[in-house]
Design brief:
Layout: E1 2-10, E2 20-26, H1 44-47, E3 57-58, H2 61-69, E4 75-79, H3 87-100, E5 105-110, E6 124-127, H4 142-148, H5 152-163, E7 168-175, H6 180-191, E8 198-202, H7 207-224, E9 227-228, H8 232-237
Parallel strand pairs: 2-4, 4-5, 5-6, 6-7, 7-8, 8-9
Antiparallel strand pairs: 1-2, 1-3
The structure holds iron/sulfur cluster.
């Protein structure tokens, strides 16, 4: 499996914020987020620069599992990049983790553009649909990113499986400014997700940027009955790798 990094930390966002977790960050993404204001995503070394020499490269799933066992927390977070790009390996990885111990809590963090059978092995799908404010305007990726960033049938299907009780779900949105909420409300109408599963988070790759946007996002949450999530890892470590 193509891996960017493996590390042990605390979950920094969403429903399981603060939970000790082993992170499996896969390499490569099908999108290229560049947020309003100019920041690339906080793991650009998996998307914009997947050939970064610090990425771990191809790893046997057995080796990934043995690294997990060095720490053995309840939570495993499979993130990216976009983990669903490596669907076959993702399914095997989830199966193997559940074979070790069925109470391991697996979260897969996805941009929600690809569906696959991994969902039957996991506990929480953390979907982060990408809004217009993520489009890398003026770059060669602009057109493809804008075309691919929202896959409504996939988002609806994930929400349907959640409603059938197959897994828990959360919808996380990075907020650059107040206008982002209009697109989230349109998406909510199309997909049908519940407010109680929505988390709005301030965009930024430094604690300073998060601090500047926090109050604006808190007010949007209050007004629209969405949840607020800080981004603990950015507040503690900025966008350094391995945290
Ligand atoms: S979808 Fe996620 S990993 Fe991919 S470019 Fe956007 S923020 Fe980065």
């Amino acid at each position: 499996m193509l891996i960017s990094e493996l590390f042990y930390s605390l979950q920094g966002e969403g429903k399981r914020t603060g939970f000790p977790s082993f992170f499996i960050r896969t390499n490569y993404c099908n999108l290229r987020c560049k947020f309003l204001g100019g920041n690339l995503c906080d793991s650009a070394y998996t998307s914009w620069d997947p050939k970064d020499k610090r990425n771990l490269g191809e790893m046997d799933i057995s080796l990934i599992i043995s690294k997990y066992k060095e720490y053995y927390p309840v939570d495993v977070v499979i993130t990216g990049g976009e983990p669903t790009l490596q669907m076959k390996d993702l399914i095997v990885l989830c199966q193997k983790l559940k074979e070790i111990d069925s109470s391991i809590f697996i979260t897969v963090e996805t941009n929600g553009t690809i569906i696959g059978d991994y969902v039957q092995f996991i506990d929480l799908v953390s979907v982060s649909p990408k809004l217009k404010s993520s489009v890398p305007f003026g770059t060669k990726h602009e057109e493809k990113h804008n075309k691919d960033r929202l896959n409504i049938p996939v988002l609806k299907f994930l929400n349907k499986l959640y409603n059938e009780g197959k897994f828990d779900i959360q919808w996380k949105f990075v907020i650059c400014n107040e206008k982002d909420v209009n697109e989230i409300l349109e998406l909510k109408d199309k997909v049908g997700f519940k407010n109680s599963n929505v988390f709005l988070m301030p965009e930024g790759v430094t604690a300073e940027e998060i601090n500047q946007k926090r109050l604006m996002v808190v007010e949007l949450c209050k007004k629209n009955f969405f949840n607020f999530s800080d981004r603990l890892h950015i507040l503690c470590w900025g966008n350094q790798r391995g945290y």
